[in-house]
Write a structure and sequence with these properties.
With 373 residues, the chain is mainly β. Helices cover 7% and strands 53% of the residues. The strands form 3 sheets. A 16-stranded antiparallel barrel has the order 1-2-3-6-7-8-9-10-11-12-13-14-15-16-17-20. The longest helix has 22 residues.
Length: 373
């Protein structure tokens, strides 16, 4: 009798599970992420080039460990992503108590004497390390809404090294938004056209809005796929406290082996005359073999007349940067050797670590190891 009762319970459970599957779509919980580390050497023997990451001089250093969780049940889905390590914490997500701002950092020699300035971030004592935390509801196949803390839709490069060809980052990336918190509507009328509009918190890179302004930043993206292999994104993000950034991001897979990307952006600071930056970056890359790729990033970045504290060129000056990188892949592992040289319109880089002399150029080499899972 007891065995028959257990059989009936098991049969009922199977019937209930089948009924649930017939009325909703559920995907398994997906776990993905990456880990990375790097070595960097600046030929002036001081950290000279202001990049978001790969900033430690003559050191085998940490990037980050990144873990993302994703799941879809019916029409609802969520993404949660956390990171640990300098790249995924203090270097990319400002301290929530004392927001990070780009600052000039005075380089010193072994005796503590000043030898010129570089670029860096002024940070608080802790770091909020959630990269993404948002939920989406798909009302139809073409219309959905998303709310939470999201990686920005602006720009060509991203925080995770898995999403970039180069390990160091552009000045456009460093000075632009990293995250936006808010709510957005996504509309996809066809496979070739998409539209996003949203309202976001007062300023970039914060999950808390200034209560005096609230959710007062407007954002929009028009995505186009004119032909197979070509995608383009026209982005705008504007608010009384965050300023206005206009951004174009596009990539075209010209052949099976050759790809060309482009990012152009202009940012105007809020309530300021001629304050902000403008720039453009090209990203040609070629696949030599399925496991070997070579790429170049050529960038021109200019700080406006009253540009203020930005990472890169001083006020009313420009900087040109060339970055040559290789991608050597084996399974989930990628080695990224990289050589970068920056040239400024004014003397701003330390010539060496033993004098106060400044020069217009700086060069560095790095080797990064990235594993994606």
């Amino acid at each position: 009798m007891f065995k028959k009762l257990l059989s009936l319970i098991a049969l009922a459970g199977v019937s209930y599970a089948n009924a649930q599957d017939s009325t909703s779509t559920s995907t398994p919980l997906t776990i993905s992420g990456s880990v990375d580390t790097y070595y960097k050497y600046d030929f002036s023997k001081v950290p000279n080039i202001g990049t978001s990451f790969a900033s430690d001089q003559n050191s085998v250093s940490l990037g980050m460990i990144d873990i993302a969780l994703k799941k879809t049940t019916g029409k609802a889905s969520f993404v949660g992503e956390v990171s640990f390590g300098p790249r995924g914490q203090a270097q990319s997500i400002p301290d929530q108590a004392f927001n990070a701002v780009p600052v000039e950092v005075e380089n010193v020699d072994e005796d503590g004497d000043p030898i010129g300035t570089g670029s860096g971030f002024g940070l608080g004592s802790s770091s909020f390390h959630i990269q993404n935390l948002y939920a989406t509801y798909a009302f139809t196949d073409k219309f959905s809404m998303t709310a939470g803390y999201m990686g920005t839709f602006v720009g060509y490069e991203v925080i995770s090294p898995v999403g970039n060809f180069h390990y160091s980052t552009s000045y456009l990336f460093t000075n632009g938004p990293f995250q936006n918190a808010g709510i957005k509507a996504n509309f996809t009328p066809s496979s070739k056209v998409g539209l996003m509009v949203g309202l976001f918190n007062t300023s970039w890179n914060s999950y808390q809005a200034d209560p005096n302004y609230g959710v007062n930043t407007f954002g929009a993206q028009l995505s186009l796929t004119p032909v197979e292999g070509w995608s383009a994104y026209l982005n705008v993000l504007t608010g009384s406290q965050s300023g206005t950034i206009l951004d174009l991001t596009t990539a075209y897979q010209i052949t099976d082996k050759f790809k060309l990307g482009l990012n152009a952006a202009d940012w105007s600071a809020p309530d300021a005359d001629d304050n902000g930056y403008t720039g453009i970056a090209l990203y040609p890359s070629v696949s030599v073999t399925p496991n070997i790729g070579l790429g170049l990033r050529g960038e021109y970045f200019m700080t406006k007349k009253n540009g203020g504290a930005l990472v890169g060129a001083p006020e009313d000056e420009a900087i040109t940067s060339l970055t040559f990188s290789g991608n050597l892949k084996s399974g989930g592992l990628t080695f990224i050797p990289e050589f970068r040289i920056d040239n400024s319109s004014v003397d701003q880089f330390a010539k060496n670590n033993t004098s106060n002399s400044l020069t217009k150029s700086a060069a560095q080499f790095s080797l990064a190891v990235v594993y994606a899972f």
